[in-house]
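Bench log, entry 3. Co-assembly request; chain sequences pasted below exactly as received.
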Amino acid sequence: MASDNNKLSLDSIRDSLIRQEDTIIFNLIERIKYPITPTLYKEASSSSWNISGSLFHYLFQETEALHSKVGRYLSAEENPFFPDKLPASIIPPSKCTPVLHPAAECVNVNEKILDVYKKQLLPLFCTDQADDEENFATTASCDIQLLQALSRRIHYGKFVAKVKFRDCTDQYKPLILAKDRDALMKLLTFEAVEEVVKKRVAKKAFVFGQQVTLNIDDNTKEAKYKVDPSLVSRLYDEWIMPLTKLVEVEYLLRRLD
Amino acid sequence: MASDNNKLSLDSIRDSLIRQEDTIIFNLIERIKYPITPTLYKEASSSSWNISGSLFHYLFQETEALHSKVGRYLSAEENPFFPDKLPASIIPPSKCTPVLHPAAECVNVNEKILDVYKKQLLPLFCTDQADDEENFATTASCDIQLLQALSRRIHYGKFVAKVKFRDCTDQYKPLILAKDRDALMKLLTFEAVEEVVKKRVAKKAFVFGQQVTLNIDDNTKEAKYKVDPSLVSRLYDEWIMPLTKLVEVEYLLRRLD
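Structure output for the full assembly:
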């Protein structure tokens, strides 16, 4: 969708964002079946594992390098967490006209996403502080899938901003020229829409987090859920939506360069 | 669970297998949002990408190598798809007593799983034969997550077989000594249980594949589902359960070595 300039509409973007909610919730449910596993994120002493940084950092950076070789970051929808360390793609770039303004490439809030993820999200969603040594790689894979899903969703703000600018250029232009972040943020905030998103993701968390059994009694008597719906609502309210709007503002501020 | 010999029971194994159904269905739903992307699996001519084998093969093998370094295959629950190419782990192996008989390591049906996956499952579940060049890496990541989930589930047969043997040694021993595969297969097949599994995974596919909306009318009038529940039932019936039982038989045949 996003590679075809003409089809880019607020409706198609909205459909993609709604579908991405499912991806985020599936990946969240999969990650939090493991404990936090603090050792994974601790800086390794050089003597122990002979890598620099944490095991998680090592795995994530190497995974990105591998994905970069097969062209992951040629897509305007993908943004690397370690942009300085990427090898070139062996796949040639697509010949389509880019959808986004060239300045879009400079907009990358992954450092913030990673920081929030480790410091706030994991402790909020994982109840158990324990290590799961046997599953270091499996746990880190789930982290990476979830972080990539969050990053994709949040950086979709570039497409949102592009279409909002295209459809209301007259409203956005003076605010961009004045570099008025607050006014831009206000112009692209729709509280009623955000309320709907928060309710919908809570409902999705409830539906996807159910323990589905064939016995109807089981569903009513002692229902256990894999993720707390109110936390998923909070995830969107406090982190995903504000960071998306930050991406929108950053994109708009560069839109006239 | 599986690392603690004493706690290993048919009940705990059953709980894990049921939870793994959710993982498989989530990963399946995520993979089939992309088309088949045939180019990903085609053998690359050496001139074009300077790799041997397909892009997918390259990505999967390199991903396994990376995971191996952080100890993925030290876990008895994980089985590599490319066992001959694995670098050593930088994490030391756990000091717990192994749960499985040492011969368990020789039981690996991943080659079959990969073959079935590419030739039968992808064409069955993905409606669109198209390429999605922009998402080669993302699509392959979903493949790898799904294949690892399928492999984990199927090789859980080793734990199932271990407990069945422990609980009914007298029944299994003569059949193992006689190398009677057919009788072993019969002894560990419970058709009523398999019927329940098939029904439950279809229900899960239905629940997790819903398009969840806040509008109640939307749910009834034109419901769209992300995956066909009857195909998920078939996935278990024709591939997952038979391959699990194959793993059980192979494990049992080596159990007295």
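Residues 201 and 248 of chain A are 21 Å apart (CA to CA). Residues 229-254 of chain A form the longest helix (26 residues).
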